[in-house]
Amino acid sequence: MKILFQALSGALVSIKLLLALIIFLVLSCGLFLPVYIFYLRRKYKLEREKNPSTKLKVGIFHPYCNAGGGGEKVLWVAIKALQERYPKSEFYVYTGDVEVTPQEILDKVSQRLNVDIGKNIKFVYLHKRKWVEGDRYFAFTLACQAMGSMYLGYEALTQLLPDVFIDTTGYTFTLPIFKYLAGCKTGSYIHYPTITNEMLKRVSNRNSLYNNRSIIARSPILTMVKLFYYNIFACCYSAAGQCCDITLVNSTFTLEHLLMLWNRPLHLVYPPCETDHLKKIPRPIERPEKIRIMSLAQFRPEKDHPLQLQAMYELREIVPEEVFSNITLVLCGSCRDNNDAKRVKDLKDFSMHLSLENNVEFKVNLSYEELLEEFRKAYIGIHTMMDEHFGISVVEQMAAGLIMVAHRSGGPLLDIIETSEGSRLGFLAQTADEFAVIIKYILSLNDEEINEIREKARASVERFSKKKFEEEFLRAIDPLFK
């Protein structure tokens, strides 16, 4: 009994010490943080007054500027447009790609994205990028990444104090750092909202997905905890969004979700797509004997490449063997890191598991010229990401004359693909069965019907051209430069 009493007393003392420590930390933060913020604001104000510059410094936050995806396409086309409009301004890119030189980055931009950047560009290398990588966190990934982005943003600020700060990756929590600490004008081009009502619904409905683990989906208690966490995060995300002077979004999907969360003016500016020269790729009037189905997307989990392999598996079940033997799925995309490379290996293993190795090809990190060759050889395009915020690759495949089948959600549904008869630009599907049935249907169409869809699709993509993007982007962002 005495031992039990001593144990309880010891536990009580430990709890008291823990509570005392928590109270001390809360009070310390409550007192220290405002003082430190005031100090930093004073510091950067004096620094700006001490070092006045005749040239406007523009800092563009894009930690993965060397990734070579659609987001990077927006970044570099935007920078080129800004360089031409404001030649007297200085442009800096905050990047975490410390392993590559500025020239290597620009060479890759030219070769893979077909964008030639002027000399008026400098790079600010960041070494804390690991703190925004989702794989680093076991739980509360969104909150941890948000705090990590603030840490990374603070590192960026300590290296370069800009006059104008533009985030082009969706790291919204960096905006308060530059707005309130540094007194910068702030702008943002958002490709997709960090959190949406759809995400809340999926958690509430206990749907297991790449961002909602099955262990959470199976548990009503964990689901309730995650819903509470998501709602708190959504409030913080909305508050951070109020720090943006000019906000641009890339699609109707993103616009509608952000309007609900932020309740502030937004500018819809579709991303730049390679439409002009892709529309010039010649297409044979007759269907080729060998059918190549092209997928163009970075090898990231949300792109759902396994669904494409499952669709091929289902297609094999509903078309004659002699037809299927002439069909090849070609997965084209870039790998950002070792995790993406491992994902490609897993996809290859999955294709072998489904006995599809003779009908699937992988084309990783293609140059722009190699990519053009794949466009020329392909007949059908496929895109399987659920809630794709826009879908640059969808537009580019349509411009190249491919008959497009995309996921019935997000940008392809709301902005890109019209499916009503008489105005059809492509097809939409959700499940592997649906994708397979639609591909079979496309193969059953005669050449006249195919060419009619192709020509209408090619004519429709002009609204997504680089020229249109440059005009709309500069019109929206101009107030930051006045």
From TrEMBL:
Its main location: endoplasmic reticulum. It is a single-pass membrane protein. GO terms for molecular function: GDP-Man:Man(3)GlcNAc(2)-PP-Dol alpha-1,2-mannosyltransferase activity. One of its GO terms (biological process) is protein N-linked glycosylation. InterPro entries: ALG11, ALG11_N, Glyco_trans_1. Its EC number is 2.4.1.131. Gene3D superfamilies: Glycogen Phosphorylase B (3.40.50.2000). CDD domains: GT4_ALG11-like (cd03806). Pathway: Protein modification; protein glycosylation. Residues 287-458 form the Glycosyl transferase family domain. Keywords: Endoplasmic reticulum, Glycosyltransferase, Membrane, Transferase, Transmembrane, Transmembrane helix. It is an enzyme of class 2 (transferase). The chain crosses the membrane at residues 17-40. It comes from the Eukaryota. Residues 57-262 form the ALG11 mannosyltransferase N-terminal domain. It is found in: Endoplasmic reticulum membrane. GO terms for cellular component: endoplasmic reticulum membrane. Belongs to the glycosyltransferase group 1 family. Glycosyltransferase 4 subfamily. GDP-Man:Man(3)GlcNAc(2)-PP-Dol alpha-1,2-mannosyltransferase that operates in the biosynthetic pathway of dolichol-linked oligosaccharides, the glycan precursors employed in protein asparagine (N)-glycosylation. The assembly of dolichol-linked oligosaccharides begins on the cytosolic side of the endoplasmic reticulum membrane and finishes in its lumen. The sequential addition of sugars to dolichol pyrophosphate produces dolichol-linked oligosaccharides containing fourteen sugars, including two GlcNAcs, nine mannoses and three glucoses. PANTHER family: GDP-MAN:MAN(3)GLCNAC(2)-PP-DOL ALPHA-1,2-MANNOSYLTRANSFERASE. This is GDP-Man:Man(3)GlcNAc(2)-PP-Dol alpha-1,2-mannosyltransferase. It comes from Callosobruchus maculatus (Southern cowpea weevil).
